[in-house]
Amino acid sequence: xxxxxxxxxxxxxxxxxxxxxxxxxxxxxxxxxxxxxxxxxxxxxxxxxxxxxxxxxxxxxxxxxxxxxxxxxxxxxxxxxxxxxxxxxxxxxxxxxxxxxxxxxxxxxxxxxxxxxxxxxxxxxxxxxxxxxxxxxxxxxxxxxxxxxxxxxxxxxxxxxxxxxxxxxxxxxxxxxxxxxxxxxxxxxxxxxxxxxxxxxxxxxxxxxxxxxxxxxxxxxxxxxxxxxxxxxxxxxxxxxxxxxxxxxx
Length: 250
Description:
The protein is of the alpha+beta class. Helices cover 20% and strands 20% of the residues.
C-alpha cells in the first residue's frame, strides 16, 4: 500500500506547469484623429531610435514602426532571421507552410527593426523564453491592436520551435513570440502554432538570465518601455538587432 501511495503523493506535490505564453489584454491607449490614424502617446524617457541616421547604428526609424498598415509584405516560403543578443547570436528558420499568418507577421516585424533593442522579459527554465514588446511605448501602442488571425497547428511546439504568444481570445497575436526550450506539446491543444525553429544558437537562448521569473509586468512594459525594464530588471538579456538574412539590412 505504501508503495502505491508514494508515487501519488509525489504527483500531488509536483509544481504546477507554468502558465502558457500570453499577452496582456490592455485597452488601446490611443485616440483616433480625423484622418483615422491613431494619435500616439508621448514617449517616456529617450526614444530607442532616432530620425537622424548618425544617432542610431541601424539608421533612421522605419515608418512602419508607427503604422502597422505599412508592414504587410508576404514572406518567402522559407527564410532565416538572425538575432544578435547580449548572449550571442541565434538564427530562426521560418517555414511559411507551417503558419502563413505567423510567418508573414514575423517577417515584417524583423524587416522593419521592431525587435531591435528589446528585452527577453520572460525566461522560464525548463519551459520557454518570450520577447516582443517594443522598447518605445509609442511603437508598442501602435502595434497593440494590430492582431493577426490564428493559424491551424500544423507543426507542434517542440524544443527549439518558435510561436506567437497571444491572450486568451482568438486571433489575438500581435508582436510577442516565444521559443520553446523543451518539448511543450500541451501548447498545441491551446492553438499555439509554431512558424519556425531555431537552427543555430539554441544554447544562447537557454543561457538567458532567468532570475526574475514572472516579475516583469507586461502592462508596465507596454506603457513605459525599456526605461521600466532597465531600472527594475537590469540583468535581463536583450536583443541588439534582428535581420532577415540575405536582405542586407531592413
